[in-house]
Amino acid sequence: MVQASDATPVVPRAELLVVQPTTFCNINCTYCYLPERSVKKRMELRTVELLGERILQSGWTADDVTVVWHAGEPLVVPPEWYERAFAVLARHCPPKVRLAQAVQTNGTLIDASWVRLFKAHDVRVGVSLDGPRVLHDSRRRSRNGRGTYDRTMAGIRYLLDAGLPFHVITVLTSDSLACADELFEFYQAEGIKRVCFNVEEIEGVNQTSSLDAKGTDASFRAFLSRFLERVANAPRPFWVRELATSVAMIMATPDVIIPNQQVEPLAILTIDVDGNLSTFSPELIGSHAPEFDDFRFVNLKDGGPEALLAAPGFRRAHAAIVAGVDACRNSCPWFRWCGGGAPANKLSETGSLAATETLYCRLTKQAVMDVVLSQIEAGRLPGMEKAA
Ligand code: SF4
């Protein structure tokens, strides 16, 4: 999303609430960043009430707010709990705020009861799927080391059979970068029409990445070029987040500010299972960082956005993030498109929120924009030539 620039000071507004209904995940992916994924804790409905009271009713939200249930496997908590949680949030939601519900799930628990819930509440569904079995099962495994491909695909088939729209998030590793054609053909064969590419990140408790190697930049660019070529020549429309967002940014006129939610206070609010409130990159909450109060800036029991903005840990983190954004602005040719990157990746990769370039941004910001611009310039994205 882009916004017009004018002289009006920007008032921080919460647009995305990332809510952790449980710490627990029923599988154990090799690249997972969550430190407490084996801990079985569920959010109390009293905390959901506080979320409604302290956030939705605070006056600090945008008119359109999306709640994403994530950071642990959200479907470990039963559908009945969500029925109650959605009702609580609807009760607290002011008339002018449009509230959308979303889940990001590993898909292994989706069945008819989930399909009913998703349909009844128009829940936007994202499923983590790393492609064909060999790629998916190499990283996305159960606690006893078995692949989860069959269970994830079974969940996806429930969505397909019900005609429910969904997207998949595919984490790219060094193995997948050689498989652009295989991935594209897999999605086509399975009826998957919307894909977001993440990269195997050095983040949180995951301190290594197969992409942290010489030659990754070139192989990532080659992967994306080939994949987008296949998309451009596909018989049916196929949506790729990286392409859609890049094209929107390229089409924006110079007076338009391209926002970066991850560095804007409040734009993303993260609420953990205990009601702790954070902002900036959602992955920051709970990171070991005493200087920033482990990014648990305030608890909903004690206040909402206003209390967060006054919290000493927040203020220190904000100052460091602003320093990082300023350093990016002064040094990086991709700054207009990126807006200073992802604080969580800066911290995990370099130990500092004030850092600039990371592996994450070289791939997901710099390489993505370069590849999309090259495709447009080469006339491989029909109708886009004038935008380049
Ligand atoms: S691409 Fe990297 S270095 Fe450039 S602005 Fe973004 S985070 Fe900063």
Structural features, described:
With 388 residues, the chain is α/β, with parallel strands linked by helices. The chain has a domain at 3-257: Alpha-Beta Barrel (TIM Barrel). It contains 13 helices and twelve strands. Strands 8-7-6-5-4-3-2-10-11-12 form a ten-stranded mixed beta sheet. Helix 6 (180-190) runs parallel beside helix 7 (216-232) and helix 8 packs across helix 13. The structure holds iron/sulfur cluster.
Chain-wise SSE layout:
Elements lengths: L2 E2 L9 E6 L25 H12 L4 E9 L9 H14 L5 E8 L6 H9 L3 E5 L4 H7 L9 H14 L3 E7 L7 H11 L3 E6 L16 H17 L6 E2 H11 L4 E2 L10 E4 L4 E4 L18 E2 L5 H6 L1 H20 L3 H4 L4 H8 L8 H19 L11
Parallel strand pairs: 2-3, 2-10, 3-4, 4-5, 5-6, 6-7, 7-8
Antiparallel strand pairs: 1-9, 10-11, 11-12
Helix pairs in contact: 1-2, 6-7, 7-13, 8-13
Bound molecules: iron/sulfur cluster (SF4).
Give the percentage of residues in beta strands. 5-15%
Structural class: alpha/beta
Order of helical and strand elements: EEHEHEHEHHEHEHEHEEEEHHHHH
- Sheet with most strands: 10 strands, mixed
Output the radius of gyration.
20 Å
What is the overall silhouette? Answer: globular
CATH fold-level topology of the domain at 3-257: TIM Barrel
Topology, number of strands:
12
